[in-house]
Design goal:
heterodimer; A: 298 residues; alpha+beta; Dihydrodipicolinate Reductase, domain 2; 2 domains; five-stranded mixed β-sheet; four-stranded mixed β-sheet; 40% helix; globular; B: alpha/beta; fumarase
Chain lengths: 298, 195
Amino acid sequence: MSVVETDLQHVVEDAAAHLYVWALKDIPQDLRDALAEAQKRETSVPGQRVLSTIMKNVGIADDEKNLVCQDTGIAVYTCRVGEHFPLHPTRIYEALKHGTERATVEHPLRSNAVHTITRENTGPNTGYRLPIVHWEFIPDWDGLDVKCVPKGSGSENMSFLKMCVPADGVKGIKQFVLESIVGAGGKPCPPGIVGVGIGGSADYAMYLAKEAIARPVGTRNSDPIVAQLEDELYGLLNETGIGPMGLGGDVTVLQCHIEHADTHMTLNPVAVNYQCWAARRASAHISADGDTDFDREF
Amino acid sequence: MAQHEVTFPITDEREILKLRAGDEVTVQGHVIGIRDRTQIRIFDQGVEPPMDLRGAFLLHTAPGVRKLEDGRYEKVCIGTTTSARMVRFTEPLGAKYGVRAICGKGGFPDDAIEPMRKLGMIYFAIVGGAAALETTQIEEIEEVAWEELMPECLWKFRVKDFGPLTVGIDAHGNSLYHDVQSAAQEKLKEIYARL
């Protein structure tokens, strides 16, 4: 590797180490606004108790520079790599892995990664195929965007997939999302973000659902037909009465985000991936010459 | 929905019986941290817990901690995990060890209602994810057993003004989770009819 590549790999590693801890401590402004809005809307006594405790907790995390939630999750990164970015994705992955390890050891953060059969710890929030990275490649560009989403297990355990058939139509999609969120009750730490992936294949639908939870809260799909479904499901989910932490109330979800892909004529897959109220995410843009901008959101 | 303050471990059963589903509770005294692997060791592997659990308040947690040079542990970030995974341990915790309260997030399914009624136990709902606040309410980590299960050891914390907690399931057969779920299932039927 050239000197330039080595330096750039260090820049990406530093960015990853910073993003992981930053995401865990300082939740984004759009999420703060959504939580404040939820607190205004909620009328149930236990629901109010939960939301005011959440707001107090966010304030304490700010003041004491502590983690918002103890579950440091599994580190999931989304990378948008420009075709002219001078560091190969192989090295970007290595940098993300080392950055995750450094953040875990240096802070220190709770290490959650285990072998899936032996359940023995595999390292400082890293292991075989951990962290997880979503890749997107951008033509005619020389930059790199990295987003870190530490994904907690309480919400990840509330993930659901159904291979609806075409005859189930959009009604089948709506029913499956509704029954999934009602069935999940208080377990995924509501009110959070419901990510829905539709179309593609079984695996791709779930991948899209994960992309959906990582979007800024309340953004809408660029396809107006899908955006309309987001609005409708958001309204219906909040009619269910599950409420904050499943104790009953008006606010069951902060948002419903949908990502879609075209699919086979006989397929109609629906995947649901939940993101808890502590919907942590942090982003950075890294330029080809190694400048890092931590304010950039995508 | 009344407000209460209760000190654990409790010695008087009436302290539990006066609490009703939906009530707000603040806890003082001692809290025992426990999780999946801790309870698998006690009940599935038959290892006696090296702490007295009579009258205890158990918290579903795997804390983030820092080990000090003298072997003690210092808190970093302590929060609460999803309870539903551990519901099957409710009855033996009460019947064999005299545990009186279990606190976690997300609730217990209906399987817990009858053992809690029969044995005089309570399920407390904490706000999941609110670990920064919870950490400030834990004054000290007083004891740690089974360190080899880190972080799923058996922990003893001294707490101050721990909460606010909501009584999710009381000792009289009432469960907020059951009520919320029943109402939501009815609501779903109505929503499906207009889709």
